[in-house]
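Obj.: predict assembly geometry.
Materials: sequence records (below).
Method: joint structure prediction, all chains together.
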Amino acid sequence: MIEYKHVALLGLGLISSSIAHALRRAGFDGKIVGTARSAATRQQAAALGFCTRIAETNREAVTGADLVIICTPVGAMGGIAAEIAPALSPGATVTDVGSVKCRIIEAVSPHIPDGVDFIPGHPLAGTEHSGPASGFAELFDNRWCLLTPLEGTETAAIERLGTFWQALGSRVDTMDPSHHDLVLAVTSHVPHLIAYTMVGVADDLQRVTESEVVNYSAAGFRDFTRIAASDPTMWRDVFLNNKEATLEILGRFTEELFALQRAIRTGDGDHLHDYFTHTRAIRRGIIDAGQDTAAPDFGRFVAAKLPPKEPS
Ligand SMILES: NC(=O)C1=CN([C@@H]2O[C@H](COP(=O)(O)OP(=O)(O)OC[C@H]3O[C@@H](n4cnc5c(N)ncnc54)[C@H](O)[C@@H]3O)[C@@H](O)[C@H]2O)C=CC1
Ligand SMILES: O=C(O)C(=O)Cc1ccc(O)cc1
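Observations (raw structure tokens):
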């Protein structure tokens, strides 16, 4: 059962509008007060009608809220926390949905007043679409939502937030924030960077081959173009705020790529065959373990394999 009575959604885009739709589907009868930076977005959200009320400012939206969810690009979250701090109600929970966790914790927690819990979160669910019209109630169904609570946070507050995400359809788990950032660098951030790069390469090539890249693109490349259509501001902020883990995984990726490049150049078919046999076994292992292709499950699979990130 959802224990909150007044949910404030800061930022009105894919994730926040999906939260509102999923709340309504769950029968939530409390208040959903949303706000966004631009008047045009606020008007669009008001017309779509998924909030009880649209507030003009972040401070107005959080006034009286017992759950505040920051749903903006990662780079904006610290400034928003500073802005809302004086208006937060004692006993409220502040959470976020950002794709990285350590930098958000650094930016947000110094502003959270005593008596308010900050519990960082990340629903591992999304699409390449953005804006208030892109949300839908089923987005979080059977997807993981990872909470990365800070030391000393009351278990009851964490459980309350976990129950909230379960009511939206999610499976909920907790994780150490730096481990989260490393796992997500492998399963989401670097794959997005690769997709962005591959589409850029194809675009260069297309100038030579005219429309062949589009005409003959296979399913794999089409998936790359879908991912590479994701919101530029959001992904700029992800990479700038998960720099260390992204560079670590990108370094490993580049080493493996060079080894494959060398195998192709030298005609080392055994190396290629062994490598592809190994990766196929990984994929089949995921399926045999009852975890299908969904990224969140793959995330857990990788989490089990990666060593915990060493403190920097
Ligand atoms: N899109 C996805 O697939 C997923 C996104 N996330 C995370 O969720 C958060 C929101 O993402 P989406 O809903 O996809 O974004 P979106 O682009 O659909 O919506 C973002 C909202 O934030 C507002 N905003 C933008 N810049 C702002 C600023 N500087 N100050 C205040 N408000 C600002 C926008 O007006 C918009 O209302 C991001 O932090 C992202 O990392 C998490 C899981 C999946
Ligand atoms: O659309 C896709 O394939 C995604 O990978 C969605 C996504 C994007 C960012 C996240 O932090 C979590 C999920």
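Conclusions so far: The CA atoms of residues 80 and 218 lie 42 Å apart.
To do: check interface contacts against the pulldown list.
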